[in-house]
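Q: what sequence does this backbone want?
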């Protein structure tokens, strides 16, 4: 199976002249993502349960770590470029709104056009990070992999043709990681009874690890047969698809998001009308909020009916206010036209 050759990388958008660098461009990307504010924010962003009371419940940060683990396992078994898989997996969710997919819906309504977190991830990496106007300056290949880590609807899986195998490895790793970890969290919070899981889930294994490795094993076997990363055939795939559909119907669609939507809309209204934020794109500020920050704004609205700048000056969004002021920020266009793959 063909692994991505780093020598074929399109490279970085902006020339650099650092005295110290990592020769492997994708390991360099991984380090840059680890050092970013966006990566640190993942610890306070929702995976499914917002601000969980149980320490073992997944956040967006722990989900990202699990995706990296699955992606590495797939890559090492198929002889792929593991460094590229790692960098894509590390950055795949840095463009998520607070409150996860509910936040995407709210921002889409505000913008009047669909907002997708994979696009948001590329925008964050290129435009919203750092103060030098160059963002994280990641390799084109890592950015494109982030953009393509989620490319279909909530249930259907697909391996887009004519892209590096590593992109598809991370796409599948994401689906595998969240499906089985979310089962545990759904049971932990009483949305699903562990003793009443459907037969097609149990057939994949009676623990998260067994289910995860059963599916990874089937994906690896199929990919080896076909000479490319693909997963669409056989009983294991069928059970996995049914499990994903079950989770959407029995867990994700049953979450109550009403108060969270109100909080995000009120926060947007505050950013739009408060004189302190004049000249700052309120939608970009909304994107940079964590769940904890959004909850803080919501608590202040409930307590006093208003938000005072003096009471929220310690929030992380204030790191971005001055550099966003007067800047045109397009939250729809990933702006990857500078890279062309031969």
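A:
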């Amino acid at each position: 199976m063909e692994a991505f050759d780093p020598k074929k990388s399109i490279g970085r958008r902006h020339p650099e002249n650092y005295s110290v660098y990592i020769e492997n461009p994708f390991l360099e990307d991984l380090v840059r993502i680890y050092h970013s504010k966006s990566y640190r924010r993942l610890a306070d962003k929702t995976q499914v349960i917002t601000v969980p009371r149980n320490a073992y419940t997944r956040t967006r940060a722990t989900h990202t770590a699990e995706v990296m683990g699955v992606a590495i396992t797939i890559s090492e078994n198929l002889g792929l470029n593991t460094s590229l898989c790692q960098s894509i997996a590390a950055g795949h969710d840095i463009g998520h709104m607070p409150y996860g997919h509910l936040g995407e819906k709210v921002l889409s309504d505000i913008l009047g056009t669909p907002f997708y977190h994979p696009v948001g991830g590329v925008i964050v990496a290129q435009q919203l990070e750092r103060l030098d106007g160059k963002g994280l300056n990641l390799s084109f290949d890592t950015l494109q992999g982030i953009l393509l880590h989620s490319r279909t609807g909530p249930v259907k899986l697909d391996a887009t043709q004519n892209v590096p195998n590593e992109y598809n490895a991370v796409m599948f790793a994401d689906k595998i990681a969240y499906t089985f970890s979310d089962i545990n969290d759904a049971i932990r919070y009483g949305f699903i009874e562990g003793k009443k899981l459907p037969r097609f889930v149990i057939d994949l294994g009676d623990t998260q690890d067994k289910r995860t490795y059963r599916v990874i094993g089937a994906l690896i076997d199929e990919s080896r047969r076909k000479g490319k990363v693909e997963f669409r055939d056989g009983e294991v795939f069928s059970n996995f698809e049914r499990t994903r559909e079950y989770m959407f119907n029995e867990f994700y669609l049953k979450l109550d998001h009403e108060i969270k939507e109100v909080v995000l809309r009120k926060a947007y209204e505050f950013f739009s009308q408060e004189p302190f934020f004049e000249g700052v794109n309120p939608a970009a500020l909304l994107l940079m909020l964590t769940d904890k920050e959004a909850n803080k704004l919501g608590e202040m609205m409930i307590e006093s009916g208003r938000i005072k700048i003096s009471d929220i000056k310690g929030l992380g969004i204030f790191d971005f206010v001055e550099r966003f002021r007067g800047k045109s920020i397009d939250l729809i266009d990933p702006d990857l036209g500078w890279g062309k793959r031969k």
